[in-house]
Design goal:
alpha/beta; Rossmann fold; 10 helices; 8 strands
Length: about 260
């Protein structure tokens, strides 16, 4: 499996290869690069899709110390540099979208476009921190996990039972303690909303209409805050991961956005 070492971490990535324009994608919390299989299947011949497993997810490791989305953004750039790619489109879902925004802020000249799904650029409100910590602390504990998995997957994945079952299996088989550092990264995220005006490349914002982690207001706010042209699309009936549960609609939007980017 391909890895890039950065400090005490090993970052795993999946790369479709090819000579097409490169898209770097980051997954949502608790998931991994396989959530982008519908995009690899539909767009992999036209574009080089690099999907990164963030610290503590998939085969990627962490060094046991706290990290932030800025650290994850630097991890992702390390993968891009390792692959010898100059300019990329950066994107992701929830955690991956937060990472993509910071990638764009760290290296604006190298970013052709930004795609964010189910994302807010602000710090997490105190009331939400309490709820997230309760659920994720339980996840990392040793109590029965099945009821929590069903609840979390209903909120985050939504879709059909077929959409959820592969992730139930992964979560049941995985190391539950790995979620602790990711929880701290999510809950303690800083706000980059005030910096979004510095991102002047084209941006695409997507939100599932049933996403309970980001609101319609969040989506409108982040779209308006970008410094360049930005478009907002709402995916009817989708939750946090519309690229997985509603791939045909999302892939069409992706393709139109990518085709319209300047060289």
């Amino acid at each position: 499996m391909p890895f890039v070492a950065r400090g005490g971490t090993k970052i795993h990535y999946a790369d479709t290869g090819g000579a097409g324009p490169a898209i770097v994608l980051g997954h949502s919390m608790l998931m991994d690069n396989e959530m982008f299989e519908p995009q690899r299947s539909a767009l992999g011949r036209e574009y080089r899709i690099v999907a990164i497993d963030s610290r503590g997810h998939g085969p990627s490791s962490d060094d046991g110390t706290p990290f932030s989305y800025w650290d994850l953004a630097r991890d992702a750039w390390a993968v891009v540099d390792h692959l010898g790619i100059d300019r990329v489109v950066v994107g992701g879902v929830e955690d991956g979208a937060s990472t993509a925004l910071r990638m764009a802020l760290l290296a604006p000249p190298r970013v052709r476009g930004v795609i964010v799904i189910g994302c807010t650029a602000r710090a997490m409100p105190p009331d939400r921190r309490v709820g997230y910590r309760e659920v994720l602390d339980y996840w990392a504990g040793d109590g029965p996990l099945t009821p929590t998995i069903k609840m979390v997957s209903a909120l985050t994945i939504g879709g059909t039972l077929e959409d959820k079952l592969p992730w139930w299996d992964k979560w049941m088989a995985g190391d539950r303690s790995r979620v602790r550092l990711t929880t701290e990264c999510l809950i303690n995220r800083d706000s980059v909303f005030e910096l979004l005006g510095d991102i002047d490349c084209p941006a695409l914002v997507l939100r599932g209409s049933s996403d309970q982690a980001s609101s319609p207001r969040d989506a409108l706010e982040i779209t308006a805050a970008f410094g360049g042209p930005a478009a907002l699309h709402t995916i009817a009936g989708a939750s946090m991961v519309p690229n997985l549960t509603h791939p045909d609609a999302v892939n069409e939007i992706f393709r139109d956005f990518l085709a319209g980017l300047p060289g």
